[in-house]
Design brief:
Blueprint (H helix, E strand, L loop, with lengths): L2 H17 L13 E7 L4 E10 L2 E10 L2 H14 L4 H15 L27 H21 L1
Antiparallel strand pairs: 1-2, 2-3
Helix pairs in contact: 1-2, 2-4, 3-4
GO molecular function, one term: iron-sulfur cluster binding
InterPro entries: NIF_FeS_clus_asmbl_NifU_N
Organism: Melghiribacillus thermohalophilus
Length: 149
């Protein structure tokens, strides 16, 4: 597959997650972690809810407003971390952060799925915060949950 075709495919994946977000909404009940974060630079905001049970992310949903990069990243992230252990979710977050900053990653180590579509963000440093907003919210939520235990 040529580079142009790959970029087109990645663009389509990003737009699909933006127009048809997975896990958009709120979790029922009051036993979920709730994290609100925003990117004051561009106005993106996210309201992330996660349910962590037995050390695993049992469910995750988000609401928010922002650019296609920010909202598609939130959609991809919630999809990717469901069913993962907290440690796996944090490792995915580190790998994602490295990827969008243009660092070499070992994609065989953790299955990233649609998330690789966002690797082109590394060419646009101003968009890195957009792409990582949901991931930073997830990290913050996990850290708060671990403090409460």
């Amino acid at each position: 597959m040529s580079f142009d075709n790959l970029e087109t495919l990645y663009r389509q994946v990003i737009m699909d997650h933006y127009k048809n977000p997975r896990n958009r909404g709120t979790l029922e009940g009051d036993d979920s972690l709730t994290i609100d974060m925003n990117n004051p630079t561009c106005g993106d905001s996210i309201h992330l809810q996660m349910k962590i049970e037995d050390g695993k992310v049992a469910d995750a949903k988000f609401e928010g407003e922002g650019c296609s990069i920010s909202m598609s990243s939130a959609s991809m992230m919630t999809q990717a971390i469901k069913g993962k252990t907290v440690e796996e979710a944090l490792e995915m977050s580190k790998m994602f952060s490295d990827m969008v900053q243009g660092k070499e990653i070992d994609a065989d180590e953790i299955e990233l799925g649609d998330i690789v579509a966002l690797q082109g963000v590394s060419k646009f440093p101003a968009r890195i915060k957009c792409a990582t907003l949901a991931w930073k919210a997830m990290e913050k939520g996990v850290q708060e949950d671990q403090k409460e235990e």
